[in-house]
Amino acid sequence: MTKKLIGIDLGGTSIKFGILTLDGEVQEKWAIETNILEDGKHIVPDIVASLKHRLELYGLTKDDFVGIGMGSPGAVDRDKKNVTGAFNLNWAHTEEVGSVIEAELGIPFAIDNDANVAALGERWVGAGANNPDVVFVTLGTGVGGGVIADGNLIHGVAGAGGEIGHIIVEPEDGFACTCGNDGCLETVASATGVVRVARKLAESYEGDSSIKAAIDNGEAVSSKDIFEAAASGDKFADSIVEKVSYYLGLATANISNILNPDSIVIGGGVSAAGEFLRSRVEKYFLKYTFPQVRQSTKVKIAELGNDAGIIGAASLASQFAE
Amino acid sequence: MTKKLIGIDLGGTSIKFGILTLDGEVQEKWAIETNILEDGKHIVPDIVASLKHRLELYGLTKDDFVGIGMGSPGAVDRDKKNVTGAFNLNWAHTEEVGSVIEAELGIPFAIDNDANVAALGERWVGAGANNPDVVFVTLGTGVGGGVIADGNLIHGVAGAGGEIGHIIVEPEDGFACTCGNDGCLETVASATGVVRVARKLAESYEGDSSIKAAIDNGEAVSSKDIFEAAASGDKFADSIVEKVSYYLGLATANISNILNPDSIVIGGGVSAAGEFLRSRVEKYFLKYTFPQVRQSTKVKIAELGNDAGIIGAASLASQFAE
Q1: How far is CA B274 from CA A253, B198, B266, in A?
Q2: Are A158 and B255 inside 8 Å of each other by CB?
Q3: Which domain of life is it from (chains A, B) (predicted)?
């Protein structure tokens, strides 16, 4: 029988699991709630229990699997297979993950950072089309990313490779970022960043706009509201999308001038705006890319949605295949 | 006997040759003039003749060598081992290089772009200290570069990886670049770029300065003149170095936010300014890097000078070692 892969996507709200073929096809998937109580000490035992339960349910044993892969928040030590400072899991200190799961399940285990793992997933069976050079940018609560160059996920010397959200796009008058710098891409292109740009532009906009009115009235406005209003013809909302697209186009163009990947794949919640966002970003991307890069690197929207995490995690485990 | 490597650095003025150990030590080196007459048709035969002559002189045969590596200007096809559009060699069309040299010498041959090859050299035995993640930026007539990530030279999907000179550093009001875009790093940090920045700043500078006076009088001013005047206390020249360093600091910080290399190595003629330039660039680099990157990625000045080309070229040939 052909062996399978297990992918685990560990998040602050839920832990997603998948059983996949060696070709990246999801055969089974399920999720459990993340119990972050008591310094998150239940998380690893809960993962072990859920895996054992499901393997029994499906009549599978350790011999049916090539390996287990996991994407985790926090600082991941890939060699020691542990995680440090994953604050949304209440793991302030170092948590042993791989050694426990390997001992309990008897299956080889690999782990990497969650944004990197999502990049691997999109590259493997998503918009990246298994190309050796793909850069993934995720626009969510923050802006993250993963760089795959010449077939390798690039971690860099201290594991901070792929910090796409902290590319400086406004060097002189940017918004303050949680990282301590000013003008990071994350401050203008995350879900909250889009709203931040809206507030700034609202100060000088004169004209009719439901979004401008909501901001001025102190009502809650989301990036989704802004993209929807722009798509419906709200000129103020449109100017926000334009500005955000400028920042994303500049950043993705410069990434591409450095790496000339096959594609830049944009994912995460904000990317739900789809072609409306992609085409705007591409306009600035084309303006700022070197001619040879302009002709070869493509801007795409992610295809895997929530499954990118388990698929990318499973791809980590394929390293154990003969 | 231990085998050796041959490295060839093909340029528009001279062709440099080196015989190196497998550890990258240069044992012999020589150079010949590049004869670009008659569409550069003498270049490859001249290389073959020079190699045969020297091998005989040193009493060496093809069996003494693992391989030959070459760095070339123009668009290099690494698989077909040919070069297209190397205009400073008068090679407008495709020139067969590797097939001829391999047939004449009987030694395996590898070729890559000259900026990439210089990056390999600096990474191997220069400032890169053989680290798997090194980015090389060369400030000469133009601005070029090479990206080595996870041990691999990154060519990208169309071979335009490492176009560091075409990172956009002035998105809204930049100088026109030869590539057709505006605001590229090359327009402000190449030898001519530094002078371009000087002319722009001279328009609004009021005060005593030999550089400002020379520009206003229409005299020839070089980037070397500007760095020397700045080091001697010329305030106007200092403001030029400051502005150029800002652009280089921003670009190298963003490269590092994406890749987190062990080091960014600055080479080329402009880098002769040494620590005076490096420390200025580093000031802006530190301002614009993500905290983890700031603590781990270093800004260095290249160490190999003119030998980077032959050393990097020789490193290409080490792929043929068992």
Answers
A1: 30, 20, 9
A2: no
A3: Bacteria
